[in-house]
Amino acid sequence: MTRWIDKKVPVIQQTGRWGKDGFVIWTLFHEIGHVLNDPRGEMHLEFSSEKKRNTVAEKNANSFALDTLFGDNGLDRLRGLTSERDIANAARSIGISPGLAVHQMHRRRMLDYSYGNRLCVDLSGTYVQMN
After folding, report:
1. Can you say whether the dihedral through the CA atoms of 114, 89, 58, 121 is positive or negative?
2. Residue 40 structural domain
3. Sites in the chain below the pLDDT cut of 70
């Protein structure tokens, strides 16, 4: 969720609902995209309906996250990979965590959900406070 305090201070809040590093990293950069590109003061929650997930603001936030995290070639370097070793090596060459690579590959149906899960780091028991 992204919200603003007095339309001056952006606040990004995340739950540990999914708890995997790829989901947490993707969501953080998606929300940063909202902060940097949307009108100040606009609040964004995760939406459960397809219609609200496909708004211009959501598409732009996803584009920001993809471009920032994966660079100009996007997910091209991950296409066709199925072995954990190859995915981990490709992720390192991009400069991202293997868990983030797997998260996006699953999300885009580039990798069956039964593959790559050992590359994801479970953060569900981790508490992070940022000041």
Report:
1. positive
2. 2-119
3. 16-17, 44-53, 126-131
